[in-house]
Hints:
The chain has helices spanning 2-11, 21-24, 231-234, 237-242, 306-331; strands at 32-33, 41-45, 50-54, 57-62, 65-74, 81-90, 94-96, 107-112, 118-124, 129-135, 141-152, 157-167, 175-196, 200-203, 214-229, 247-259, 274-276, 282-284, 336-337. By secondary structure, the protein is mainly beta. It folds into 2 domains: 21-124, Sandwich (Jelly Rolls); 129-276, Sandwich (Jelly Rolls), CATH 2.60.120. Strand 12 and strand 13 (175-196) form a beta hairpin. Residues 1-13 and 299-333 have low confidence and may be disordered.
Amino acid sequence: MLFSIFALRHMSRKVNSVPDPRDVFPECKSFVQPRNTFEPKIQSINKGDLLCILGSIMIAGKGDYQVTGAIPYEVQNSEDFQYNKTETVKNALAVIGNEVHVNVYPVSKVECLEDDGCKIQFMRVSHSIVEYGTNKNKGNLSYAYGKRFIVSTANKGKFTLSQYATINKNKKTQDVFDETDFTVISAQQMTMKWKRSKYGDFEHNNIKDHESTSGEISASTTFNMFSDFNDKESEQLLNVYNRGEDVSLEGHVSLEWKPLSSGSETEWYFPEITATLSTEEGIFTKGNIDQDFPLTHSSGLSGVAIFFIVLGVICVIVVPIVAIYLIKNKKNQHYDTI
């Protein structure tokens, strides 16, 4: 399968050197690494003290602080990795880096600027993805795969979770698959109502392929939802594809959430935002954390039976990313995970 070729290229190649974050920030005496995505932690530091964090993160705090990031990159025509330092930004909201290797991470150096000390809140996040390639099984026809990572810290709001795809059996145009990973996280318990269109679906807590078209999710402080196509409803498109026709498919799920009560005693310093996280690495503030997603599509030219996309695109892109994530968790034994 195409997956095996891609996986070998990304996971089995020899690496000459993996940079030590202590080399880029020797002033950091120790590093912490959040283990789970979207699991906020709070750490107190005194003025002038440093909190050094591994991984792509969102960050906020009680009291002013400044952040300098270091973003890893692969040296061209080499198997070595180095770091590029970002500018130092006061009260930065995120440091995001691309996954360049299973054991190489962006680094954030956080310094407290307050005489009375700071409380720093941070959580691990993911970056949005856009990948382009060719499908050898379709005469090297090009494809594009995109995954939006969107995070909301709003206590209440509305959002439409969408998924699009296109597969062309006759037209010599690009296949496209576009999905969304959406997370709402708050200090307060919230309820979530949803209503889906035909073909539209979502996965939450390993539950998907909903038979009903609307419902409510049990109260929680965090909802992590993945866009999906409903397998039963999209199965009919197999016949369309097998007749030799191009296939079009899109699905939408309307979400609405609100708090159960009007207050919370939980410490919380993240501002209320709803943001599409960047596909590019860098350091971000509240003013620029919401980024445009570079993959575009139109309704008339978007859609596909999920079965073919899974075989033709998802296996190529998503499975190695999941495998890399699992390998990371096994190899990170020399830093403090929290």
